[in-house]
Every structure is written in structure tokens, then in C-alpha cells.
Amino acid sequence: MKLSTKGEYGVRAMVFLAERYGQGPVSLSYISQRENISLAYLEQLVAILRKAGLVESVRGAYGGYVLARDPRSISISEVIRPLEPLAPVECVSDESQVECCEQRETCTTRLVWEKLRDSIFQALNSTTLSDLCSDRAS
Amino acid sequence: MKLSTKGEYGVRAMVFLAERYGQGPVSLSYISQRENISLAYLEQLVAILRKAGLVESVRGAYGGYVLARDPRSISISEVIRPLEPLAPVECVSDESQVECCEQRETCTTRLVWEKLRDSIFQALNSTTLSDLCSDRAS
DNA sequence: TATAATTCCTACTGATTTACTAGGAATTAA
DNA sequence: TTAATTCCTAGTAAATCAGTAGGAATTATA
């Protein structure tokens, strides 16, 4: 049930951007240094977040990334979802359309996985980037 | 955030035992066939559950395993906990006593991991084996 | 215009973990 | 005595994780 570093680093990078929202682009080399995350690895994660529409890039010197929306409107589940699967088991995931097993209707353990999935979603949906900013004013 | 098969198989095996609680020992070869789980792998998982005090073994021919307690008193979190870590990130786990980072007090992302951990615990603590039995009478 | 700082893209890789397999010893009901 | 079981340890192929590496494209500034 552990989160991978993708999700963890992704959230840390996004909170970092949230704390500087409205102050122009922030470069990944800066985030990399301050958050102690490998630059090349961070590039890959942020590329995913950009394709998910959560950040926008400014290319060239003095460029970087900015949040695509107000940090109060971006939930943690939105950040983690593109980076790694959120559902605890395959068969209660809305993304994967694969039919996981034939006992779908009669499966009893499924009950607890759905409950678990919902409570994970609830916790991450109800927390926004601004909730995690050290400067809570933004 | 995916559960490994250890947790998933462990819960399935325990629910299987719960549905036959009070009917004598159930062999792993039977569970293995019915739940379609490799016998040798299942042996290893059940060994962990036995050491955790959740099941008791009956050795020899016509032996097997029985639940150590009433299925209404065994929560799913008790089953999964010995099989795999439940906390989403290292630094909000009560088991590991390792100091994960020096920013423990000022860490802002920690807030959401604690909230996530608590809601995972809550979901799994509040569900028992008997809640997942197809024969809900037991 | 040249340079440095950046994003962007793809391929590779070592280490770790996962999900088993394999083999056998000990126990016990029939 | 046999067959069915638990019990124990070691090994292992495949997948995943957590990056590295190398370079192309873009752009503000000197």
C-alpha cells in the first residue's frame, strides 16, 4: 500500500509551485535543489503533470513551470492520479477497463476494496495544494 | 498505492476460513484450488498470519487451519498489517522507528499523508471478516 | 549574435521487490 | 505404513522502481 516516489515527489513539487503561485515561472533545477530530488527524474514527473494539464511550462532561459490553476482548486488526488494508480486493487479501478475476474457480482472481498478506494479518494479529494502550503495565505 | 497480492490473497484466504468457522480445519490445498492461489505461496502467507496469532494450525493428515478468533472480531487491517505496510509513506508509519527526515516538524506535505493513513486505517478497522462472508449469518 | 539556462524527448540501467517455484523435513489420521 | 498435511528455507524469473544519460529545441540576456 505504499505510495511510490512518483506520487510523493509529484506532490512535493506541486506544493513548491503552489507556494510561489503568481510569482512567475519556477525552474526544475531550483525545485530539484531545494527538494533534493534528481533533476532528470523530476523532469519526467513534471512532464506527466503538464500533459495532465496541471502545470504550464515557459521554455528557454529564465523559464520554468507555473501551476495551471489556483492552488485552492487543485486537489491532491488530481496530482497523484496521473502519476500512479490510486485504487488499492485492479478490479475497483475506474481507469482500467479490463474485466478482472468473472465473479464480479458475487465477489465478497470486493466490498472492502471499494470501501478502501472510496476513503482514499475522499481523503485526497478533500485536500488541496493550498492546504499544504506553509504560507497558508495563498 | 496498489496492494500487493500478499494482502489481497491473505484477505481472500481469511474470508474463506471465516465462511467455514466452527466447521473444523480447512487445508491449504483446498483453499488454493478454490481461490486459485499457488499452494506454496499461500503456505508462506498463512505462516505469517499464524505467527501474528490470527489462525491456528492442525498438523498432519486431515489437518489444516482454523481462525484463532470469531470472524466478527477480526478486522481487515489486522489481516493486512502483518503481510505488508499499511502507511502510504514511510514517515507516517508507526512501525518503522527510523527518522525519515529532519524537517519532521515543518513538513507540510506530511499533513496529507497522515490524513490518508488515518482514512485507510479507518476503512480497514471498521470492516471485519464476517462483513465479507457470503453466508452473512456467521 | 553568442551563450547560458532552460524545457523536452527517448533510451537505457542497476537495484529492489514481487510473486512465485523447489525441495524436503516433521507430523498425524486412517 | 501411507498419504495428507503443516512447516521451513533457499532460490529465481520477471516486473517495477528510481533513477542516468545524452542530446535537441527554445529563449532571455549579454
Overview of the molecule:
Two copies of one chain form a homodimer. By secondary structure, chain A is mostly helical. Helix content of chain A is about 40%, strand content about 5%. Chain A has five helices and two strands; from the N terminus they run H-H-H-E-E-H-H. Chain A has helices at about 5-20, 30-35, 40-50, 75-80, 110-125; strands spanning about 55-60, 65. Chain A has a two-stranded antiparallel sheet. In chain A, a hairpin with a 5-residue loop joins strand 1 (about 55-60) and strand 2 (about 65). In chain A, helix 1 (about 5-20) packs across helix 3 (about 40-50). Chain A is elongated. In chain A, about 35% of the residues are buried. The model of chain A has no long low-confidence stretch (mean pLDDT about 95). Chain A binds a DNA duplex (30 and 30 nucleotides) through helix 3.
